[in-house]
Amino acid sequence: MTPTLSEQQIALAAAEWYFRLREAGADPAEHAACAAWRAADPRHEVAWAKAERISGSFAGLPGELALPVLDRNRNRNDLDAQRRRAVKTLATLLIVAPAGWLAWQSTPARQVLAKHRTATGERRPIVLTDGTRVHLNTATALDVDYGSEQRLLRLRRGEILIDTAPDSRLADGLPARPLLVETVQGSVRALGTRFIVRQHDNHTRVNVYTGAVEIRPAAAPDRSLRLNAGEQARFTAIDPGQPAEADPHTTDWTHGQLIVRDMRLADFAKELGRHRPGVLRCDPSVADLRISGAFQLHDTDAILASLPEALPVKVVHRSRYWVTLTTPNP
Description:
Elements: H1 5-22, H2 28-40, H3 42-57, H4 76-96, H5 99-103, H6 107-112, E1 116-117, E2 124-127, E3 133-136, E4 141-146, E5 151-163, E6 179-182, E7 186-199, E8 204-217, E9 225-228, E10 231-235, E11 244-245, E12 257-264, H7 265-273, E13 279-282, E14 290-296, H8 300-310, E15 314-319, E16 322-326
Parallel strand pairs: 5-6, 13-16
Antiparallel strand pairs: 1-4, 2-3, 3-5, 4-5, 5-7, 6-7, 7-8, 8-9, 8-10, 10-11, 12-14, 15-16
Helix pairs in contact: 1-3, 1-4, 2-3, 3-4
């Protein structure tokens, strides 16, 4: 099938961004601009994911065959010619690459193509066919698969608050199907529950507010853990974790708030960064400062502007999408 003009343009743009950032000396503003391009359209993110996946497959090839790192110190004409060849090659691969191998099987693409998604900074509630209510936090991707044996929610990324409803099949005299939330690390089975599930890079965090849940790690399903109301746990693919007291502020985002008490500034920046596009960095020189307060997430720029009033920090804007918290000028 001949690719459309739009597909060609996106492939060329993705390839151009990919090699621009691989050039020696690519600056933070360019990284931030690329992040903004990726966030502008789900197709951009799919193309970017494919570019990264293709580049990984070339990693072990000899230098003359591998996708190059461009050197800005070279002669400008040589660099331009090298970039044109590299961009053309990668764009062609993006267009002809098998979708089943590069796009759908890549985790970023599954996130982008999930049925229910929120953009960075967006929060949205949905109601499922059985009446279960799910609130999606910022940058969340969720697929719903209700079958004859179970009600399955696949959390691709992000965070959800679930208010479970009884299985609608009970009204027809049929057995109730369990409701499960599946993450990379395993599954969480609801037992008449209101609870939060958040997908982190290397673990899943669960907070339970009413009822109970059962956690089963993906690689050790025989090692289960029951969490009751008021408890939380962090589990991995091999370890169900240990119960601890639930954080009462983990649902604040559903009201558009971020409430923190004595939090390290580095951790605060990481959490706030989930709710704004681009990059929010915290310099090590101020990382251990402590912050407390209630912040309205609808205006993250206002939050950043208020920080120097509370802490000895300076907010440096390289661009709208690249912000650094650092020490004030002497």
